[in-house]
Structures are given as structure tokens and as C-alpha cells.
Amino acid sequence: MKLWQKGYKTNGQIEKFTVGNDPAFDIQLAEYDVLGNIAHARMIASIGLLTKSELKNLEAELKKIHKQIKAGKFIIEAGVEDVHSQVEFMLTKSLGETGKKIHVGRSRNDQVLVDIKLFLREKTREVVGDVEELFKLLIRQSEKYKKHLLPGYTHFQVAMPSSFGLWFGAYAESLTDDLETLLAAYNVVNKNPLGSAAGYGSSFPLNRTMTADLLGFETLNHNSVYAQLTRGKSEKIVAQGMSNIAATLSKLAYDVCLYMNQEFGFVKFPDELTTGSSIMPHKKNPDVFELIRARCNRIQSIPNELTLLINNLPSGYHRDLQLTKEIIFPAIESLQECIAMTILMLDNISIKEDILSDKKYDNLYSVEAVNQLVMEGVPFRDAYKLVGETIAKGKFTRPKGVPYTHEGSIGKLENDKISKRFSKLKSGFGDSSKMLALIK
């Protein structure tokens, strides 16, 4: 069944090629298609295009379909082009002429737009929940290990003293900034395109504000042409927000791979969370973190892939946009899996204590020695030269203690302020309550 069928049969090769993988990905949109249908039905009833009885019957049938979806029993039947066609087919089969009225004042263009925006909005909220779990773990580990010192590096050379508290906390704050960019993406997506029809509006007196409110959108995509232009753009902006989270996870994964190396030996994990070699019996490989790094690097390529797909298209709908789903949907799932695995691993991490007691790290304290001389009245450049000379002669003795007290240093992590900022950002993502009220 095709919503655009006009009585002739499409060539089989053409049909297979143009439908592509849509049914497989459309299953993920089914719940949102039903919710969009309910909102649309209520709106067209409000302007006299459905009777109260027809609306009641449509809503009842749509809620039945929703239950099938939640129970995992909904399918897109063979020969049915997409989720929109399947839902309309089921309504028409059950309700006859009433089912045929559901599409009035609407195009598949704005129908898929609203489905994708609702999907992206809810998936963004899911990702935020996942990120919050990782964030809280990083803060806990930061507080737990804040007195355990760690070498800091620049250019892969030992540089200055750091701590596990500072290291864990750095990635927690990184996720906070990532959440800020994801919130910007969420705000772009959280606008209602329904009612833009094929991209040029409708001669029916549609109430687009009503459907926006029913579906829990913050506002409208006001211009009907621009509403269509958000197809592909919405996916790309969400992908950009996700790519920042992926970049944080990738860098963290690289650190862990490095710190697990026997020549560092800063961290380790239970045997059951590592893998081995087929030939070297001593190996405990960081495969999980290597795959997190690789997957997250792939996720960072998604905005570029979407750019190449949607670039240089004129305004209006084009079939090219069908392919955005098979790019962005698996990427979201992969990111969520990477976050889950990072949580599992970091919750079971063990750290090496007293790392800096090794004399090879004495030079980490050279800056402290310079600063002590400065505090005694020696000009900085003279103090720098004096300490450099003692190091060159092999006579440098590390000062005692690590007197870092300013905000964001070893002695003052500022985790409470980072957490407060994270919570404030998280509150901006709202919830699904208004949309889900449609099926109660």
C-alpha cells in the first residue's frame, strides 16, 4: 500500500530501490507517528473536518495501535511502503471511511518531519539521562580519589602534578559543556512542523498552535517552507551535539588505554572486563576502551556525513532526505552503548596509589620550586633559570607538598559548582508528560 498510489503498478526494481531501508528504521518512528496522528485528528476535528464520533473512533483505534507498538507486536507489512502508510492502512481497515479522513490537511512531508522531531527530542532526553549517570559517577570518583596524585603531561612529557580527582572531574565538566551544546540542538528540534504540509501550508484553516501544544513542542516552525528545510538540518544539529559527547568519551578512552599500559600502570580493571591475546598469555587488553574510542570517532563523523547528504539541495522536499534516518538512528544507539560501557568500566576502575613517590617524577615539582623562590622575592625569570640549572646538574630536590588552592586546582576541585551547572542545564530538556497525555 502506498499513500500516493494512483492505480498503476510501480516497477519492482524502482519500488525496492526507492523504499530502501525505510521500513526497518520506520519501526522506531511508529510510536511518534501514532502520537502525531492523535494530535492531528484532534486539531482537524476542532475545525469541523471530523465529527466528535469520528474523532472518538480514531483515537480509540490509534491507542490500540500504540499498545501494539509498546508490546513489540506492531509490524510494517510486506508491500506497505512506510510507517505512515501502515498506520493509515490499519485505521482504514478498522474504521472504513473514517480512517481515510486522517490525512486531510497533511502531507507525508510534514508527517515524517513531526515523527523525526519527536523521535530526536525523546532520544536526546534519553541521552541526557545516560550522560547524567556518567556525570554523577565521574564526580563521585573525583571526590573519592581527589588526594591521589597523578602525573600531568604536556607534549607527552611529564609536566606538573595532577590528581585522579582533577582527571575525573575534568571529564565531568567536559560533559557539562557537551550538555550545553546538546540543549541548543534540543531547542532547535523542539518546534512543531506539522501543518506545513508539503512545504507550502494548506487551504484548510489548520490550528498549528494547537498541535504544537498537544505534542509538547515549545513553539512552531512558523514559516511552512522553512519547516521543510529543517529536514536534515535537525538531524545534523542533533548529531553535532552528540559528536561533542563522543569527543569527550573518545579522549577519556584514550587516556585510559594509556594509563592501563604496563609502563604507566596507573589504572587497572577486573580480569572479566578485559580481553586477552591468542598468543601472548600475559595480555589484558583495553578492547572496550579502544572500541569506545573508535565508535565515538565514527560518531564525530556523522555531522559531516549529513552535511554531504543535504548540501546543495534547493528548498522543498527531496528524496535524498530519506537517508538521514539510516545515518542518525544507529549513531544515537551507538553513543548510548558507549556511554553505558564507560559507566560499567569506570565504576570498576582501580587506581595505583603513591605514583609520584617514584623519583622519576621529581621534575614534576620544578614549577613549585620556581614559585617558592618567587614567593621569597626572586624575580620569576631568575627563579626559572636557577631551577633549570639545578635540574641540568642533577641536583634538583623536589619541594614538599602540592600547595594548589585556587579554584579548579588539585586542592579545590569545584565539583559542587560543576554539578550545579549540570543540573541547571538538564532542567532545560523538559519531559514527555504533555505528549504522552495523548494516549491516556
Structure write-up:
- There is one protein chain.
- Helix 3 (30-46) crosses helix 7 (108-144).
- The protein has 440 residues and is mainly alpha-helical.
- The protein is elongated and about 95 Å long.
- The strands form 3 sheets. The chain has a two-stranded antiparallel ribbon with strand order 1-2.
- The mean pLDDT is 93.
- 38% of the residues are buried.
- It has helices at 12-19, 22-26, 30-46, 52-70, 83-95, 97-100, 108-144, 164-189, 208-214, 224-260, 287-299, 302-310, 324-346, 366-375, 380-392, 415-426, 433-436; strands at 149-154, 157-163, 191-192, 219-220, 267-268, 350-351.
- The chain folds into 3 domains: 12-100, Fumarase/aspartase (N-terminal domain) (Fumarase C, Chain B, domain 1, Orthogonal Bundle), CATH 1.10.275.10; 117-150 and 162-194 and 221-355 and 412-439, Fumarase/aspartase (Central domain) (Fumarase C, Chain A, domain 2), CATH 1.20.200.10; 358-392, no CATH class.
- The longest helix has 37 residues, at 108-144.
- It has 17 helices and 6 strands.
